[in-house]
Amino acid sequence: MRIKGYLESELYVESFFHPDLNLDIEELKDGDIVQLYRFLEEKLKIKIVFSEEEISASMPSEEIKKHLIIKDDQTPILIRKMLIYDEDGTKIAYSIGYYLANRFVFNLNISR
Questions:
Q1: In this structure, what CATH number is given to the domain that contains residue 13?
Q2: DSSP 8-class letter at 19
Q3: Domain total of the chain
């Protein structure tokens, strides 16, 4: 689990890793886990080749409101779910991020 913010919390992310990675919980609390892909590739030497992602808009739960410091009932969020695979097709990580909808833009490049 990690929280990223600037002047206020803008993003709350929970990440779950494959148990075979044998990650040290202290390593996961390290401030270096700013970008999940970079952490997996540089720190764990895992080559990421594919991810499935889903982005949806929603109203936040009470728990997410606390993490993002939302005080009203009219602030929407974006929810980004990612399932990340390595070069062997193994599911390495699942991550779900909650973003303040008025602070983020997602750009997608799709090639085939």
A1: 3.40.1410.10
A2: G
A3: 1
